Description:
This protein is 77% helix and 0% strand. It is mostly helical.
Amino acid sequence: MRSLVSSLIAIACLVLAFPLPFATAARLLPGLYGMRVPARFVQLAGLGLALLAARGLDALLSRARQAAARAVVVALLCG
């Protein structure tokens, strides 16, 4: 459930990083225009995507029961 909320927040921040959706949302939601620069939402979207990546890695490592399998997963992800 938390990963669903994290992904929705990341997608919303990524959409709000563009000027047209930001201007529309700023007219509808009070206090949103305080950000003034829509590109600031890119940082929040990046944080949300990093959290989702960490959850995915945790799920992969929890499925790998042996230490050797975990080392292979980490080696594949690191390149």
